[in-house]
């Protein structure tokens, strides 16, 4: 299980042994309630089972040490104080009927907790995107200054990505909301499909169309694929912030609490430790995905090669995702944005970020694209090499200044506002109310 440092309530509470045994009992009682509805058990049997069930975690564990079978140990301890009603407990079921159906309940409930935190994260990203809709920042490709853009628009890209993740997660939660109560090899030999239908409805699940002794593991793989994508999306934001927090950039900073220390040796340090933690966690989350995919291929109607793996990665992956979303919310809500620094950094590339506009304007004036590109590139390289203003160098070139009849037309090219002219239209694609 995930270490305590990264395990947060309410999601960690889903994965305690006590919660697991309670889910197993939920499934067993739902089946008995179905028996009652179909007149296969006396009325009141389920209520009596629920009242007399003995959920002693330590005793179940002690019994398991002797029997080497967790479900049988669970049944023995839970039914110890029962009378005749114990005959209906686990009747017609195999262990996986209980374990897999209860696991679906756990994953579904964990998914719903994650979904709530993801919804909050999207709202926080939207708020940040709206606030910085017109905040000018230099766009970078390959880590190099490209053209001006909006910091809000940069954040809006993460909004769109997380909205897609939300759609995927909702679908995955719906698909994992399946159970199976179909017996040892899934053929309903000792339990009727109607019992399964009624019992699963009581658990807010639906029957899997066809199962073996276990639920198909592609259902799990789909769910954890959705979680891995959420983690990767958070990592993308974390890496962006890490780059923008470099000393020579310093356009944004992750929050730094009062009394926080960045380095044991260098008192001046404010390190992006939260973003680095999120980056590392995303790697771990994606690594769990391989286990989910490996578990799809089981022998015949089932083996238990998947079981030990799932006991580790399923709780861990859900807790990791929740932790990452929780910290990503804190990060976005408290992100420090240096608008003045963004402006300063635009000026560090000697106005070269306007090269495309110069190129297009020369083409508009009748210069061939090939010739225009050559002219602009020559002057751009000169600006880099001499560390001089690109605009001034261009005006020294007769091939350029001869094409501009008015100095104002030339000056207009070097305005960052031009690059935000369609930002409103992009924002209209989102529900930002």
UniProtKB/TrEMBL annotation:
Keyword Lyase among UniProt keywords: yes
Name by which UniProt lists this protein: Adenylosuccinate lyase
Pathway noted in the entry: Purine metabolism; AMP biosynthesis via de novo pathway; AMP from IMP: step 2/2; Purine metabolism; IMP biosynthesis via de novo pathway; 5-amino-1-(5-phospho-D-ribosyl)imidazole-4-carboxamide from 5-amino-1-(5-phospho-D-ribosyl)imidazole-4-carboxylate: step 2/2
Entry-linked InterPro entries: AdenyloSucc_lyase_C, Fumarase/histidase_N, Fumarate_lyase_CS, Fumarate_lyase_fam, Fumarate_lyase_N, L-Aspartase-like, Prot_kinase_dom, Pur_lyase
Record-stated family: Belongs to the lyase 1 family. Adenylosuccinate lyase subfamily.
Domain Protein kinase stretches: 170-433
One Pfam short name: Lyase_1
Species of provenance: Petrotoga olearia
EC number: 4.3.2.2
Any one GO MF annotation of this record: lyase activity
Catalytic activity entry: N(6)-(1,2-dicarboxyethyl)-AMP = fumarate + AMP; (2S)-2-[5-amino-1-(5-phospho-beta-D-ribosyl)imidazole-4-carboxamido]succinate = 5-amino-1-(5-phospho-beta-D-ribosyl)imidazole-4-carboxamide + fumarate
Superkingdom: Bacteria
UniProt keyword Lyase present: yes
Keywords assigned: Lyase, Purine biosynthesis
């Amino acid at each position: 299980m995930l270490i305590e440092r990264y395990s947060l309530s309410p999601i960690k509470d889903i994965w305690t042994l006590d919660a697991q045994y309670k889910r197993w009992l939920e499934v067993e009682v739902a089946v008995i309630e179905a028996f009652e509805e179909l007149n296969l058990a006396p009325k009141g049997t389920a209520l009596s089972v629920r009242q007399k069930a003995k959920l002693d975690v330590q005793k179940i564990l002690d019994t398991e040490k002797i029997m080497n079978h967790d479900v049988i140990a669970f049944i023995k301890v839970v039914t110890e104080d029962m009378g005749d009603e114990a005959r209906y407990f686990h009747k017609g079921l195999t262990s996986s009927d209980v374990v897999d159906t209860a696991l679906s309940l756990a994953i579904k409930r964990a998914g719903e907790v994650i979904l709530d935190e993801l919804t909050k994260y999207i709202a926080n990203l939207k708020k940040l995107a709206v606030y910085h809709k017109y905040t000018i920042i230099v766009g970078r490709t390959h880590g190099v200054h490209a053209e001006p853009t909006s910091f809000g628009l940069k954040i809006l890209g993460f909004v769109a990505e997380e909205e897609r993740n939300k759609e995927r997660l909702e679908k995955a939660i719906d698909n994992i909301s399946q159970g199976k109560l179909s017996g040892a090899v899934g053929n309903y030999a000792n339990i009727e499909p109607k019992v399964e239908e009624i019992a699963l409805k009581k658990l807010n699940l639906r029957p899997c169309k066809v199962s073996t002794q276990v639920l198909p593991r592609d259902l799990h793989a789909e769910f954890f694929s959705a979680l891995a994508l959420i983690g990767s999306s958070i990592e993308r934001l974390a890496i962006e912030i890490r780059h923008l927090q470099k000393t020579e950039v310093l356009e944004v900073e992750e929050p730094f609490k009062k009394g926080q220390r960045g380095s044991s040796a260098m008192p001046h340090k404010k390190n992006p430790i939260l973003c680095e933690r999120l980056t590392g966690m995303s790697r771990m989350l994606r690594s769990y995905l391989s286990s989910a995919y490996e578990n799809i291929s089981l022998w015949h109607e089932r083996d238990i090669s998947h079981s030990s793996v799932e006991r580790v990665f399923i709780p861990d992956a859900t807790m990791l995702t929740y932790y990452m979303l929780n910290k990503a919310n804190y990060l976005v809500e408290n992100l420090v944005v240096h608008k003045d620094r963004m402006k300063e950094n635009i000026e560090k590339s000697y106005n070269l970020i306007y090269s495309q506009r110069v190129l297009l304007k020369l083409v508009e004036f009748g210069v061939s694209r090939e010739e225009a590109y050559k002219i602009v590139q020559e002057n751009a390289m000169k600006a880099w090499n001499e560390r001089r203003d690109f605009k001034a160098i261009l005006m020294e070139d007769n091939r350029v200044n001869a094409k501009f009849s008015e100095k104002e037309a030339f000056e207009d090219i070097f305005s960052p506002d031009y690059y935000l002219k369609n930002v409103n239209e992009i924002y209209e694609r989102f529900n930002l109310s």
